[in-house]
Amino acid sequence: MSKDMKMIPELRFPEFENEVEWDLKEFSKFIKLDRGSSPRPIQDYLTQDESGVNWIKIGDTKNAVNSVLYQVEEKITLKGAEKSRKVEKGELILANSMSFGKTYQLAIEGCIYDGWFVLRKYENNFNKPFLLQLLNSDFMQNQYKKLSAGGIVQNISSDIVYNSKLYHTTLPEQQKIASCLSSLDEVIAAHSQKLELLKDHKKGLMQNLFPQPSELGFDRLKDDRIEKGNKKILQSSNPKNHNSDNVPKYRFKEFENDGEWVEKKLGEILEFKNGINAAREQYGKGIKFINVLDILNNEFIIYENIIGSVDIDESTLQKNSVTFGDILFQRSSETQEEVGTANVYLDKDNTATFGGFVIRGKKIGDYEPAFLNALLKTREIRNSISSKAGGSTRFNVGQETLASTTILLPTIQEQQKIASCLSSLDALIAAQAEKIEQLQLHKKGLMQGLFPRMSEL
Fold first, then answer.
1. Are 335 and 393 in contact (CB under 8 A)?
2. pTM
3. Are residues 29 and 164 located together in one domain of the fold?
4. Each residue of 372-407: pLDDT tens digit?
5. Would you state the pLDDT for residue 98?
6. Where in this chain does the record put each Type I restriction modification DNA specificity domain (predicted)?
7. Residue that wins the pLDDT comparison between 154 and 402
8. Strand-pair partners of 407
9. Which of 14, 88, 183, 447 has its CB surrounded by the most CB atoms within 10 Å?
């Protein structure tokens, strides 16, 4: 039998080259699952008291680092804890609903509801860090998806988990593999933290490079870390005029004496039009077709990044064209937070069109497109637009609301300077995100080599 047919990984540390083959056995042979439990109605047991018990929900995993859960948003009373499943610091919990199949290690103690399983009685068979890596591998996640396929609700039962299969080798080899992968996780986490700091820095920079009119009811961002970062970049700034609503707190030196920014309505620089609703058979071919996801998923829009396309005639395209400098707005959304989100089209070589849930702002006034894109993403302008949205189950903004929105504009030269500064920061953010993606791909490839036939059952 060839090596490829044996239960042996392609990559193996030298000290284990002569070890026996790995095992592949059902989950139930190695691990016991205990399901969480929820006191009902849960609202009666939630508390803000410091003596409360951590109430661990799947939503709390958004702040997990390297699959370790450090904090929760809610607590339950001691009486509620008696009706739930207690878990200790260091235990592993596996999600059986929502983002099902993901496993996390607890850095806190608390209680879990029935959306979690807690893993127990595996210590004789598995090194914990190794098991955490294995359970979150594509090999295991693909098994959960296959075994749960066809179900109406996207969750996994204990039977599905128990029937999945686990790779198993000696504890010393498990520890060696876990140590290797954990080191790579630490590198990824460090780069991820740097990415978040860059994003925070951009957010703070925007708060100070754009005026924040007090009549809109928003206070300046209070964040010492961001304030210090801005001063390092804008050493030539002079905040002496920042007491005016129409002047930013920080200003590049060459614009200190340019006076206040000028009030304008969006309708003075943009001409608005609703997007087209084509027949179903027209989609999937023809010219690129800007939709809501293109607005939400990009810092700016260029032709090659547009997801969809539509087959329309030349006359329709002329009336509904999107060209360099035009601004696209999300006209309708299920959330008030997203409605009115804007993005700019920055492709000078290609013309696109736009969909029915989008409003196009055709460039008719004098502005720097990249600057206006950044301005429309500020908290003040976003809230100014979304607060006027109508609807209950779905929120909508119209052309009139957009046209009447007040903005403040400096000279074109100052717009260009600010846009250039933010674009440089965007380039750093994009490069950092790319670095993280490459590290994640490297880890994925490494795991495929360190585990036998990771893509197969």
1. no
2. 0.80
3. yes
4. 999 999 989 999 999 999 887 899 999 999 999 999
5. 66
6. 20-199, 260-440
7. 402
8. 264
9. 447
